[in-house]
Write a structure and sequence with these properties.
Elements lengths: L10 E7 L2 E8 L10 E6 L12 H11 L4 E5 L15 H17 L4 E7 L1 H10 L6 E5 L20 E6 L7 H10 L5 E5 L10 H12 L7
Parallel strand pairs: 3-4, 3-5, 5-6, 6-7, 7-8
Antiparallel strand pairs: 1-2, 2-4
Helix pairs in contact: 1-5, 2-3
Length: about 220
């Protein structure tokens, strides 16, 4: 399967992946915004719980970055949508991210690579961040306890890193996330969002502002 060129308009495309085709959506920066030399890959929540690249938190995170001048790539992990393969408990999904990142590096070799993820997607993105040479990382509601994902064994990045966590999350224990961040030797920027559930119901605009306010200082010059 040949690799497609990086599009200049919003495009759904198929990328070669380790378990077959991977369905992806590539969006340039928002109209009227100066494009920056940055591409952000945004990873979706758990496939077996219905997570897809069209999840509202994922699409809002991508929109927040596009409004700053960043091109975004969302993709479906294996077994989701038109992506081939079977769910692989985070192992194969990291391979999927590696394949997408390799395509971005091939097509946009001079662009900075940012990795973002929501819930399970934040676990996959964080696991891949150091290996893939990410220039910045955004973790939204990382499931650090009780979901079977071992954050304690991740080789954490030494680049700008943002964690956004709702204080009323009913799926990921907020205090577990706050304790995890507090115990890290090199702490990320932590944004605690009051009265905010796991899926950021009625708080998506606040999520957009939290992301933009936190990462604006990380942006390269156009």
């Amino acid at each position: 399967m040949p690799s497609p060129a990086f599009p200049t308009e919003p495009t759904t495309l198929s990328l070669p992946g380790p378990a077959g085709a991977l369905e992806a959506v590539v969006d340039p920066p928002e109209p009227g915004v100066a494009a920056l030399p940055v591409v952000a890959i945004v990873c979706h929540p758990l496939s077996t719980d219905g997570g897809t690249m069209h999840n509202k938190v994922v699409t809002m995170a991508a929109r927040a970055l596009r409004e700053l001048g960043i091109a975004t790539v969302r993709f479906n992990f294996r077994s989701v949508g038109a992506s081939q393969g079977e769910f692989d408990h985070g192992v194969g999904e990291l391979d999927d991210l590696r394949a997408v990142a390799a395509w971005v590096r091939e097509q946009r070799p001079h662009a900075a690579l940012w990795l973002a993820g929501f819930s399970f997607g934040s676990y996959v993105a964080l696991r891949g961040a150091r290996e893939l040479g990410a220039d910045a990382v955004i973790s939204i509601a990382p499931p650090v306890a009780g979901r079977g994902w071992d954050f304690g064994r991740i080789d954490l990045p030494e680049v700008p890193w943002l964690v956004v966590m709702g204080e009323a999350d009913e799926i990921v224990a907020p205090q577990a996330v706050f304790d995890w961040v507090d115990a890290l030797p090199r702490k990320p920027v932590l944004v605690r969002m009051p009265d905010t559930s796991h899926f950021f119901h009625r708080k998506l605009i606040d999520l957009r502002a939290a992301i933009q306010d936190s990462v604006r200082g990380w942006l390269p010059h156009a």
